[in-house]
Amino acid sequence: MKAIEAKTCVDAWLQASTFLLKQPAWRAYNLVLEIADPLALSPRDRAVHDIVDGFLRRNGQMPINTVVNTIFPAQLYASNGSNGVYEEYPARYPSIQCHRNAQHWGTYAMRMIQRTDHEGNTIYPLRDLVAKLSGQARRNGGKRAAFEIGTFDPFADIPIYDPGRDRGPIMGGPCLTHVSAKLTPEHAILLTGFYRSHYYVQRALGNMFGLAHLQNFIAREAGVKVGPLVIHSSMAQLDMSQGHWGTRDIRKLIGDCLAVDGVALGYDLPRVASSAA
Fold it and tell me: Is 100 exposed, middle or buried (0-12, 13-18, 19+ CB in 10 A)?
């Protein structure tokens, strides 16, 4: 296990990516990041963000903002408040899903916002969780660890992994399998996201910001503060993309990001020939 403490999402991503470069096959297990100020974006962070975003766009991948919105519709929340999340996003979801050309992958936001139970009733897991958390925050001695997003009870929690449709395929299921929210005595929300498999080139930075926006939404709607964000990557890897980029491209990407801080990427690091999911 490797634990990394960072101030921002960008700093956490860059520390983790540099660490992965030093691992065999550019892969590590149980990589845990703790991010103190998840939504912070300094000029240095913006420069690194734009380098990664430009790399993804040039290689035909989803830009960071699109990855963010697979987890939480941050732009709709910014423009239209909670109505944008609870009402507008579900209404727009069919067209969003078509543009993403995905079946089950990348549907985290919809899984959390609106679902249908086994009897055909529409339920609203995220809204229910916010209401439950808000109620506990107003109580003396309220519950601190009763706010889970990812177990199997659609009436008590917000399921991300769906055993009904996700248990069969070996590939293509949700990589984000569980989100846990904790309420501290100081009335701050701690959010932990658990990934069964995590691509640090294609997805990780967007995933971090997506969870940060989700955490911010829960905190604001419940009337509490934002605390640290924790990302637990059960398997983390610097991923190759056949036909798009290889090991040299990844090394250059991380080297360009490190250069923002005036740091040179060492070339005595292990090299890999391929990467598997």
Answer: middle
